[in-house]
Design goal:
With about 120 residues, the chain is of the alpha+beta class. The chain has one domain: 60s Ribosomal Protein L30, Chain: A (2-Layer Sandwich), CATH 3.30.1330. Helix content is about 45%, strand content about 15%. The chain has six helices and four strands. The chain has a four-stranded mixed beta sheet with strand order 1-4-2-3, with helices on both faces. It is globular, with a radius of gyration of 13 Å.
Length: about 120
């Protein structure tokens, strides 16, 4: 995975108004079928992560767990999760995230990334 490309795609997704942030917003987008890809920071609490996993399984939505801080740095938003609307950006992000994320220096100490 090219982390710079992923960062750029996440930023573009926000600028294109194809992103929803926050626990309630992401779960609502999942329930309404308005989420093709859910990006979650690996520092989410286990309870919230489990909510997201279950919602994604029920709706057939792809879930990708990102290294700590990557989501916030790339989007300029403090949130820990981002629902990406269906379309080309979601497809390209999913494709880019289909390979393992190379851990950044800060993430190496916490076990790196999980790409599910």
């Amino acid at each position: 995975m090219d982390e710079q490309k992923v960062r750029g795609l996440m930023g573009l997704t926000v600028r294109a108004h194809q992103a929803t942030f926050g626990e309630d917003g992401c779960l609502k987008a999942l329930r309404k079928g308005q989420c093709a890809l859910l990006l979650a920071d690996e520092t989410l609490s286990p309870a919230v992560m489990e909510k997201y996993r279950q919602a994604c399984e029920r709706n057939g939505t792809l879930l990708r767990v990102l290294p700590p801080g990557l989501l916030g740095e790339a989007t300029g938003r403090p949130g820990k999760a981002m629902a990406v609307a269906p379309g080309g950006l979601a497809t390209e992000l999913a494709h880019q995230l289909s390979t393992d994320i190379q851990p950044r220096e800060a993430a190496k100490h916490s076990g790196g990334a999980i790409a599910e």
